[in-house]
């Protein structure tokens, strides 16, 4: 296994900055904070270490592809883009402005977004198509699709796994942000997904289940790509919804959040371990 | 009375009712505790939910199903058409955040072709209430009809006191010789604003809350188009297949013509932002509607538009 190329401490520092961006986007209309925070480390790792994607190769057919299928975690992606130089940091202030294209779900007006999403269970199949063409052309690019665990309720996700296995797409990686929640419910209290590892294995995939907040664990898993010749790769990243903000971590009623200015100030301090915020804004906000 | 109160009362007093959701609980937050096993959450599985609703209806139930408008009308479309439409089962679709109400979500969540799609299904009935009072006024008859139904859920309040809902009838708010605005749903609120501004400009203005888009009130359309100099169709829907198309179909069927100004989304999705900004950007505030009809700017002041919260 090769060493992590990013200098020590840098991935953690970038992820912290990304979390700051997410928190700053959670006001004046708000955003899906919890799901963005759970995916932040994963996204930072993939763009920093694993994927051949940078601002100079976005049109190169030999680049790697990342599809963000859960979609509502896009603040984590925009935050990562801003930190890695793909998006001007100032544009994050345009969240929900009619003068920009930064809103609750990804769209291709933002360079680096490969496909729009927001309707769950679409991008596993779009990623499948891209991976199929790469196989036909004999390319070596990697294709990643990040899905939410709640998203796995949608049958199309499982159709894509079946087809990817049938076509032996070992250049395709489905990454599950396993934060244990879907909107306002714990997944296991509604439509239980476990044993998730076994489900994917039974559908023909090569599966790794890891701590999605550990850069070492992420590195170990992705360094083993392709996991098995001729098999779809699946990474189940165990994460915590709201990771980094103890006042909203694992809270079913904190999915979409529209915090007031004071809360944002306090949450930024909370992120740096200074205190726990007393939240007063509405819970169970639905979008 | 709120939507949730009416649904709770209806389901508690009539064993046939089953409340279902594809994990969209904003409208039914308190119902699980009250209905017990007659509340079913299938998770994020709109297609399976509709199929299951058809199965429940086969057994004599009246399922009232909840999901975001775009996923209910589009992702589950074939299940709605094939499993509820073909057998004509009373599956009742409650479609959340239709039209402009999806504000900052983006095109994936914009149901602005739902009226067109749903009214194209034989046996389906289609409704778009002007506000929560209108919604609650209409729902008992909608839920009692033997057909599948699609309702654009609109729980925003307006100051207007609606009249009793008559099946298949529009609500005539006012009659005018110069202009009549035909509208439905969320934009009724802005149409009221536009009407006041146009009256101040000295015009005689009619306003009709269409309410029921299938069956549609053909006579109301004929009377409005034939007695006003200009008819305006105002809708948060694609130009294709919505109210403008309905008016065209009714006129053609009756060998009539009229001067009609359509205000709709023409071959485009709308700009995602918070609702007041969406309306302003797309030109659908009451003041902008009035000025499009007048063809000139006024000094009228647009009242503030509230941001929907959809929370409890």
Topology:
The complex is a heterodimer of chains A (287) and B (312).
Chain A (H helix, E strand, L loop, with lengths): L9 H15 L8 H18 L14 E4 L5 H10 L39 H15 L5 E6 L6 H12 L5 E7 L2 E2 L2 E2 H4 L5 H7 L3 E6 L3 H9 L9 E6 L22 H11 L16
Parallel strand pairs in A: 1-2, 2-3, 3-7, 6-7
Antiparallel strand pairs in A: 4-5
Chain B lengths: L2 H11 L3 E5 L9 H5 L3 E3 L4 H13 L3 E7 H7 L1 H9 L6 E5 L17 H6 L5 E3 L4 H13 L4 E4 L18 E4 L4 E5 L4 H13 L4 E5 L2 E3 L3 H10 L2 E9 L4 H11 L6 E6 L9 H8 L3 H9 L18
Parallel strand pairs in B: 1-2, 1-3, 3-4, 4-6, 5-6, 8-9, 8-11, 11-12
Antiparallel strand pairs in B: 5-10, 7-9
Helix pairs in contact in B: 3-5, 8-12
Highlighted features:
heterodimer, A: 287 residues, alpha/beta, Rossmann fold, 5-stranded parallel β-sheet, two-stranded antiparallel sheet, 9 helices, 7 strands, B: 312 residues, 2 domains, 7-stranded mixed β-sheet, 5-stranded mixed β-sheet, 12 strands, 37% helix, 19% strand
Average pLDDT of chain A, rounded to a whole number, is: 96
Structural domain count of chain B: 2
Q: Whole-number radius of gyration of chain A?
A: 18 Å
Low-pLDDT sequence parts of chain A = none
**CATH homologous superfamily heading of the largest domain in chain B:** Thiamin diphosphate (ThDP)-binding fold, Pyr/PP domains
CATH topology heading of the largest domain in chain B: Rossmann fold
* Beta-strand residue fraction of chain B: 15-25%
Any idea of the CATH class of chain A? Alpha Beta
Write the element-wise H/E pattern of chain B from the N-terminal end onward: HEHEHEHHEHEHEEEHEEHEHEHH
The CATH level-2 architecture of chain A is identified as: 3-Layer(aba) Sandwich
The tally of strands of chain A reads: 7
Order of helices and strands of chain A: HHEHHEHEEEHHEHEH
Read across the widest sheet of chain A, the strand sequence of neighbours is 1-2-3-7-6
Q: Note the gap between the termini of chain A.
A: 43 Å
**What is the strand arrangement across the widest sheet of chain B?**
2-1-3-4-6-5-10
Helical content of chain B (DSSP H or I, runs of 4+):
25-40%
* Rg from Cα of chain B: 19 Å
Provide mean pLDDT of chain B, rounded: 97
């Amino acid at each position: 296994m090769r060493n992590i190329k990013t200098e020590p401490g840098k991935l953690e520092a970038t992820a912290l900055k990304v979390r700051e961006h997410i928190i700053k986007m959670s006001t004046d209309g708000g955003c899906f904070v919890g799901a963005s925070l759970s995916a932040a480390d994963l996204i930072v790792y993939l763009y920093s270490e694993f994927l051949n994607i940078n601002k100079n190769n976005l049109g190169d057919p030999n680049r790697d592809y990342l599809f963000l299928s859960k979609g509502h975690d896009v603040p984590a992606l925009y935050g990562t883009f801003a930190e890695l130089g793909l998006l001007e940091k100032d544009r994050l202030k345009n969240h929900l402005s009619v003068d920009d294209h930064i809103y609750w779900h990804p769209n291709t007006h933002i360079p680096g977004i490969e496909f729009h999403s927001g309707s769950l269970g679409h991008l596993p199949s779009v990623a499948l198509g891209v991976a199929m063409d790469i196989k036909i052309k004999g390319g070596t690019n990697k294709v990643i699709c990040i899905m939410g665990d709640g998203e796995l309720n949608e049958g199309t996700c499982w159709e894509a796994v079946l087809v990817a296995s049938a076509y032996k797409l070992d250049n395709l990686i489905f990454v599950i942000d396993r934060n244990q929640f879907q909107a306002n419910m714990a997944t296991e209290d509604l439509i239980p997904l476990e044993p998730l590892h076994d489900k994917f294995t039974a559908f023909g995939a090569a599966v790794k289940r890891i701590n999605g907040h550990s850069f070492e664990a992420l590195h170990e898993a992705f360094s083993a790509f392709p996991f098995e010749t001729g098999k779809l790769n699946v990474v189940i990243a165990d994460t915590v919804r709201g990771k980094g903000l103890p006042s909203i971590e694992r809270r079913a009623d904190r999915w979409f959040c529209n915090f007031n200015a004071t809360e944002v100030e306090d949450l930024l301090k909370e992120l740096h371990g200074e205190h726990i915020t007393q939240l007063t804004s509405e819970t169970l906000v639905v979008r | 009375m709120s939507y949730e109160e009416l649904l709770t009362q209806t389901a508690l007093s009539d064993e046939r009712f089953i409340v279902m959701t594809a994990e969209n609980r904003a409208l039914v937050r308190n119902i699980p505790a009250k209905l017990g096993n007659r509340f079913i959450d299938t998770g994020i599985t709109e297609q399976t939910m509709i199929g299951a609703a058809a199965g429940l209806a086969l057994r004599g139930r009246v399922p009232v199903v909840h999901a975001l408008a775009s996923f209910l009308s589009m992702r589950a479309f074939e299940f709605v058409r094939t499993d509820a439409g073909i057998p004509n089962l009373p599956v009742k679709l409650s479609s959340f955040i239709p039209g402009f109400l999806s504000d900052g979500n983006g095109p994936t969540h914009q149901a602005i072709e739902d009226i067109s799609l749903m009214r194209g299904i034989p046996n389906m009935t289609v409704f778009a209430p002007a506000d929560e009072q209108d919604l609650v006024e209409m729902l008992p008859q909608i839920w009692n009809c033997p057909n599948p139904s699609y309702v654009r859920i609109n729980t925003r309040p307006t100051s207007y006191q609606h009249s009793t809902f008559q099946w298949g009838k529009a609500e005539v708010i006012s009659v005018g010789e110069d202009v009549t605005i035909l509208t439905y749903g969320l934009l009724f609120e802005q149409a009221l604003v536009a009407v006041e501004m146009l009256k101040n400009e000295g015009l005689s203005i009619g306003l009709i809350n269409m309410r029921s888009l299938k069956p549609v009130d053909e006579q109301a359309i004929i009377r409005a188009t034939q007695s006003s100099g200009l008819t305006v169709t105002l809708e948060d829907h694609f130009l294709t297949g919505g109210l403008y198309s309905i008016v065209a179909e009714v006129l053609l069927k009756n060998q009539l013509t009229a001067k009609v100004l359509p205000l709709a989304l023409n071959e485009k999705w709308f700009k995602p932002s918070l609702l007041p900004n969406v309306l302003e950007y797309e030109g659908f505030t009451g003041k902008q509607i009035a000025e499009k009809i007048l063809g000139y700017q006024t000094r009228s002041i647009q009242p503030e538009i509230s941001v929907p919260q959809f929370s409890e």
